[in-house]
């Protein structure tokens, strides 16, 4: 036993000891962490003897800027803490030893209590021994209660002291932390102040230099103004002389006087300005002196700061040395702590190592201590229960003694009656007296047994009397007693002996049959149990195999679906590429060809049919697989339900069998009673029947016990089934709760990430805007400086010009205006500089916020779980894919823009060709006008000449719109913007063409023939019909307005020339329109694989009927093209619907995957539970075996004590001592076995 330390305050032995360890390098900010301590080796060291007292625990942050005194104080506090902890550890060691002894005593007492309980059950007959044991138990319980009170008092006192010390240390740590943070802030503030002062000094130096330059400039300007004043005074004198000379010219004098007044006012103004400038010079000089003083003070402050920094560096070096010393001391303390921890582990786990492979953690130690406390609580509860039982047993024993005395008196009277020769009436009276006796329940059994025996004897007497009467023997009043009755019956017995022998043979055969039946039933019961267990195992194996098959089938399904999806996506991409190529060719060429539509139709139909078949196959496969999965799940559920119902039915069958067996036993008992009543003729036979009855009763009791055991097993099986169902439900609830928590955490993390991203975007936008503002301000500043420089350069030149041009002008006004401009510019400069500084500060703050946001994002990523990290990586990969897709789309946009540029160039070439043709036409018209008179003119709308081309262009533009819509549907929402831009460009081109048409129509309004107008109207109507057939939603075209000749019939000489010109124009226009139509039809036919286009015939040299036939063929070609486009649209819509269906199926598969994973996890948990239950059963079996072994030992001890009881009265003290020693050995063995079994069970 180690003596306690000299401390006044009580301390708990179960508390945690703390010490401090310095982490981190010596030059950085050291951090003192809490560590487990030990008090074994601190008693002989110098650390415990330095300075006793209270210290601060927790973590102490030491800043580099702390003073020497603060660091010395911290070192002293650490020394005090180490010494104080050493004292606490010594106390804790002593109290641990006390607690260990108390625990040993408690274990011994619990063992003794258990032994006394078992001995009481075995030795209820020996009351003096029970009294001795009760007294021992009471004494030990009193000792246990006193020890418990002492332990609780020690724990309370030590916990209070620890709480107080910890609260004091935490408060001290918080104060030290606050002081360190304040010192850091002060240091940062001083550094910022010094930097700002340096900046201010530099800025003010620049301002002083600028002011000096401005003062020099003002001085030079003052000198120049003095010269000007002198010149003005000389001029004034000259003017005065002229006034004296020219006294006659009053008007001239008045004008000169006015001028003089003006000059005087200017002179006064100039004098005022000079005064102002002098005052400003004085102010600037005072400001310079103040600035110089502030600079001197700042230099002094900087010198002081440098000296302080040097001192702090020296202090830091000293602190480093001291920290090294502290580290050495703390390492020693850590070693002591580890030793203390090892001792704690030995005290809790014993000498045997609990975990040989891995060290014991703090959590395991705490759990072990909690187990010990729980064991103590359980022991106390058991003691309380035992006390109650002993009280109840003593009261019952007293009642039993009273009832036994009553029974003894009544039984004595019955025995006296039986010994004397008595008849049945006397015995009936005695039986009635016994029956009416009121007895307690344990003695009531004896009463019932005695009654049964008496009733048997009474029945024997009555039956013998009745037999005698039946036989014909008449009894007198003096003839009483069984002996006489038996003598009378001996004669009759010889006659019935043969009958009794036959009956005995029958009884033995019936008993053998009963035993064989019972054994067969038991065997059947055991076989059914084994079959049930085997069926359960087989069903579990089948379920596992089915689950594996389902998982494999689902994996195959997913692979097949992914493959088919990839194929579908590849096909869609190929089709999208084809559609893009179609659009490019259509936009490039815009001409129609009619040959390859039929082939495209056939191919499209085949492709559609193939795709439809593939889609149907996929849908059928998915439906089959879904049905198979659902049917397998339903089948498994049905099988599980069937198995449960089978088990329930088997349980019910067993219960029915048990009830039947009970009924059969009852019937057999009744039959045996009847047979025994018949076989009570002789004493020998009576004795034999009694023996057989006792044997059969024992058998019946064993059978009932077996039946009870089977019923109990069935009930336990039922309870286990119920418990398993409840566990499954709880697991399902917990899994759902975990899923919900996981989803909520996911949403929370995603929301936080989105918020951080938005904050980063806002910060970046603000930074960009501020940088733009800075650039603007700097540019404005440069402009202002340039203007100032230009003004300064231009000042002397402007003054020279003013003096040369008008010597009588007033330069003072110009100088004042320039000065005001300069002042304004200087003020603008200052404000701009202030704004720049403020914006720079804002930018710095925003950058800091950005860095903090990035650090938070990194922290969030670190805090995320592995699944969430995987999701983040997937999202990043998706973003990268989207960026790659965007780059591809940008490239396609560039290609489209290049195509649009090419089209613009082609349109410009066409426009140039049109302009050249128009110029040629204008030249021809001018020539004709020179040769012909102006009266024979004929106004007509020559815009008809170009209208066939425009109608075709209009048709092509409508076709372009339809194909652009197709492209938007093919490419999706991402390409809509590109297509809208293309539409806008096309609409602008159309507007330009219309403007050209209007210009050409205004320039060409003459020289057309009526026949050409008829042809034009026919052509326009046909084109309008075509457009309406293609697009019925468009508004109807108005007919072309034809201007008739105004001045009547033309002259016969002008008609042939106009006819020739009109014919040539018509032929050129028709050729152009035919070429455009043929090219367009060819391109359309080649793109759409239409081979049935039969309108590829020029209408130049055809008759009107043939032209109508060709027109019909062309309309048919247009219908074919339109049908082809509609088919393509329908195909794309179907493919989009198929894709949506595929996406829905994939989502359903994902959901089924999640459910399968849940089911697997539940199965794994159930397997774990089954394994744990098996381990628990094995541990319980081991514990039962140990208890049985202990019971056998105790029975042997009790037998030895009973044998030695007679000779042990003389040497009773020696025997008591030996018994106590034996009990202690048994209790120690049981405690060791329990300690060895608990860690195994826990692991």
Strands ordered across the widest β-sheet = 1-2
Order of helices and strands, N to C?
EEHHHHHHHHHHHHHHHHH
Spatial gap, N to C terminus: 33 Å
Judging from the principal axes of the Cα atoms, what is the shape? Answer: flat
Helix content: over 70%
Oligomer: single chain
Number of strands: 2
Please count the helical segments: 17
Structural class: mainly alpha
Q: Estimate the mean pLDDT confidence.
A: 70
Unreliable segments (pLDDT under 50, ≥5 consecutive)?
A: 1-65, 802-813, 933-964, 966-974, 1003-1024, 1026-1054, 1237-1243
- What is the CA-based Rg, rounded? 61 Å
Q: Tell me about the largest β-sheet.
A: 2 strands, antiparallel
What fraction of residues sit in β-strands?
Answer: under 5%
Biased composition (Basic and acidic residues): 786-795, 1213-1227
Protein name: Forkhead-associated domain-containing protein 1 isoform X14
Region (Disordered): 786-816, 1194-1243
Keywords: Coiled coil
Secondary structure blueprint with pairings:
Layout: E1 18-23, E2 31-36, H1 68-122, H2 127-245, H3 250-349, H4 362-419, H5 424-436, H6 441-471, H7 482-589, H8 597-678, H9 683-805, H10 811-863, H11 866-931, H12 947-971, H13 976-1003, H14 1010-1030, H15 1055-1088, H16 1104-1203, H17 1212-1242
Antiparallel strand pairs: 1-2
Helix pairs in contact: 1-2, 1-3, 1-4, 1-17, 2-3, 3-4, 4-5, 4-6, 5-6, 6-7, 7-8, 7-12, 7-15, 7-16, 8-9, 8-16, 9-10, 9-16, 11-13, 12-13, 12-14, 12-15, 12-16, 16-17
């Amino acid at each position: 036993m180690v003596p306690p330390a000299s401390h006044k305050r009580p301390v708990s032995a179960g508390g945690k000891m703390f010490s401090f360890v310095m982490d981190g390098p010596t030059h950085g900010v050291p951090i003192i962490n809490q560590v487990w301590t030990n008090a074994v080796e601190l008693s002989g060291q110098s650390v415990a003897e330095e300075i006793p007292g209270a210290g601060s625990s927790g973590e102490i942050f030491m800043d580099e800027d702390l003073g020497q005194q603060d660091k010395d104080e911290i070192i002293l506090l650490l020394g005090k803490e180490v010494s104080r902890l050493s004292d606490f550890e010594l106390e804790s060691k002593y109290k641990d030893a006390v607690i260990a002894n108390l625990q040993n005593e408690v274990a011994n007492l619990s063992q003794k209590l258990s032994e006394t309980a078992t001995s009481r059950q075995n030795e209820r007959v020996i009351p003096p021994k029970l009294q001795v044991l009760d007294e021992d138990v009471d004494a030990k319980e009193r000792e246990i209660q006193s020890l418990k009170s002492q332990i609780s008092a020690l724990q309370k006192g030590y916990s209070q002291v620890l709480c107080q010390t910890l609260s004091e240390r935490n408060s001290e740590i918080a104060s030290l932390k606050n002081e360190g943070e304040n010192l850091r802030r002060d240091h940062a503030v001083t550094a910022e102040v010094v930097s700002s002062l340096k900046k201010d000094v530099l800025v003010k130096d620049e301002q002083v230099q600028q002011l000096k330059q401005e003062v020099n400039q003002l001085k030079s300007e003052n000198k120049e103004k003095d010269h000007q004043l002198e010149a003005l005074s000389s001029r004034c004198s000259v003017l005065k002389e002229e006034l004296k000379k020219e006294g006659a010219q009053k008007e001239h004098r008045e004008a000169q006087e006015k001028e003089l007044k003006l000059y005087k006012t200017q002179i006064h103004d100039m004098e005022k300005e000079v005064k102002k400038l002098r005052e400003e010079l004085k102010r600037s000089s005072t400001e310079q002196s103040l600035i110089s003083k502030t600079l001197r003070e700042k230099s002094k402050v900087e010198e002081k700061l440098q000296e302080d920094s040097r001192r702090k560096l020296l202090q830091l070096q000293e602190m480093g040395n001291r920290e090294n010393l502290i580290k050495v001391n703390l390492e020693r303390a850590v070693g002591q702590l580890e030793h203390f921890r090892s001792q704690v582990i030995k005290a809790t786990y014993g000498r045997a190592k609990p975990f040989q492979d891995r060290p014991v953690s703090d959590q395991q130690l705490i759990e072990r201590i909690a187990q010990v406390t729980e064991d103590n609580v359980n022991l106390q509860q058991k003691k309380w229960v035992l006390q109650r039982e002993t009280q109840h047993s003593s009261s019952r024993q007293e009642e039993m003694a009273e009832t036994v005395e009553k029974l003894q008196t009544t039984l004595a009277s019955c025995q006296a009656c039986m010994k004397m020769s008595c008849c049945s009436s006397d015995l009936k009276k005695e039986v009635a007296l016994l029956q009416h006796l009121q007895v307690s329940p344990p003695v009531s059994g004896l009463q019932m047994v005695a009654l049964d025996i008496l009733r048997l004897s009474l029945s024997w007497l009555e039956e013998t009397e009745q037999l005698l009467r039946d036989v014909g023997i008449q009894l007198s009043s003096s003839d009483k007693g069984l002996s006489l009755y038996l003598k009378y019956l001996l004669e009759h017995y010889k006659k019935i002996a043969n009958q009794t022998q036959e009956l005995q043979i029958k009884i033995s055969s019936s008993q053998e049959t009963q035993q064989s039946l019972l054994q067969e039933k038991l065997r059947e019961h055991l076989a059914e149990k084994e079959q049930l267990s085997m069926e359960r195992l087989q069903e579990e194996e089948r379920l596992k195999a089915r689950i594996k098959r389902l998982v494999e089938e689902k994996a195959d399904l997913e692979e097949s679906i992914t493959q088919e999806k990839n194929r579908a996506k590849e096909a869609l991409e190929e089709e999208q590429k084809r559609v893009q190529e179609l659009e490019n060719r259509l936009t490039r060429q815009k001409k129609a060809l009619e040959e390859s539509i039929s082939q495209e139709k056939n191919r499209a139909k085949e492709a559609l049919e193939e795709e439809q078949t593939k889609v149907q196959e996929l849908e059928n496969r998915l439906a089959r697989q879904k049905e198979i999965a659902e049917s397998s799940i339903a089948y498994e559920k049905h099988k599980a339900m069937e198995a449960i119902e089978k088990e329930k039915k088997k349980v019910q069958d067993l219960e029915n069998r048990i009830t039947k067996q009970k009924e059969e036993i009852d019937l057999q008992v009744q039959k045996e009673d009847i047979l025994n009543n018949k076989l009570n003729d002789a004493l020998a036979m009576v004795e034999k029947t009694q023996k057989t009855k006792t044997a059969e009763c024992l058998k019946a009791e064993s059978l009932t016990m077996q039946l009870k055991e089977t019923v109990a097993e069935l009930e336990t099986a039922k309870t286990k089934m119920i418990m398993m169902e409840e566990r499954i439900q709880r697991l399902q609830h917990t899994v759902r709760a975990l899923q919900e928590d996981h989803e909520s955490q996911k949403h929370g993390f995603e929301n936080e990430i989105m918020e951080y991203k938005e904050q980063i975007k806002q910060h970046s936008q603000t930074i960009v805007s501020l940088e733009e503002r800075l650039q603007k301000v700097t540019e404005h500043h440069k402009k202002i400086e340039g203007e100032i420089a230009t003004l300064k350069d231009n000042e002397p030149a402007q003054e020279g010009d003013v003096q040369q041009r008008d010597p009588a002008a007033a330069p003072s006004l110009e100088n004042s205006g320039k000065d005001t401009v300069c002042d304004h510019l200087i003020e603008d400069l200052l404000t701009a500089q202030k704004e720049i500084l403020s914006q720079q500060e804002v930018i710095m703050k925003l950058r800091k916020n950005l860095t903090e946001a990035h650090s938070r994002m990194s922290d969030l990523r670190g805090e995320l779980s592995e699944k969430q990290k995987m999701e983040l990586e997937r999202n990043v990969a998706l973003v990268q894919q989207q960026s790659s897709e965007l780059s591809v789309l940008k490239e396609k946009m560039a290609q489209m823009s290049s195509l649009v540029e090419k089209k613009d160039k082609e349109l410009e070439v066409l426009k140039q060709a049109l302009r050249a043709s128009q110029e040629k036409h204008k030249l021809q018209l001018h020539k004709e006008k020179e040769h012909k008179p102006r009266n024979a003119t004929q106004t007509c709308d020559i815009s008809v000449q170009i209208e066939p081309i425009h109608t075709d262009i209009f048709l092509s533009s409508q076709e372009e719109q339809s194909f652009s819509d197709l492209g938007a549907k093919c490419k999706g929402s991402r390409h809509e913007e590109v297509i809208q831009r293309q539409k806008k460009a096309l609409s602008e081109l159309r507007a330009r063409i219309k403007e050209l048409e209007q210009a050409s129509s205004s320039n060409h309004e003459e020289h057309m023939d009526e026949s050409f107008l008829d042809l034009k109207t026919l052509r326009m109507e046909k084109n309008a019909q075509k457009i309406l057939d293609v697009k019925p939603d468009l508004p109807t075209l108005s007919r072309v307005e034809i201007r008739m000749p105004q001045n009547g019939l033309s002259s016969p000489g002008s008609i042939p020339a106009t006819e020739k010109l009109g014919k040539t124009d018509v032929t050129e226009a028709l050729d152009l329109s035919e070429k455009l139509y043929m090219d367009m039809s060819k391109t359309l036919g080649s793109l759409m694989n239409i081979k049935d286009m039969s309108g590829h015939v020029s209408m130049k040299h055809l008759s009107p009927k043939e032209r109508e036939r060709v027109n019909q063929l062309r309309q048919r070609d247009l219908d074919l093209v339109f049908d082809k486009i509609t088919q393509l649209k329908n195909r794309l819509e179907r493919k989009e619907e198929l894709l949506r269906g595929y996406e829905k199926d994939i989502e359903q598969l994902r959901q089924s995957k999640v459910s399968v994973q849940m089911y697997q996890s539940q199965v794994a948990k159930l397997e774990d539970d089954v394994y744990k239950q098996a381990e628990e059963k094995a541990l319980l079996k081991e514990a039962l075996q140990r208890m049985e072994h202990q019971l056998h030992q105790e029975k042997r001890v009790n037998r030895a004590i009973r044998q030695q009881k007679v000779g042990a009265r003389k040497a009773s003290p020696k025997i008591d001592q030996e018994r106590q020693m034996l009990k202690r050995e048994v209790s120690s063995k049981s405690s060791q076995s329990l300690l060895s079994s608990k860690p195994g069970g826990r692991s």
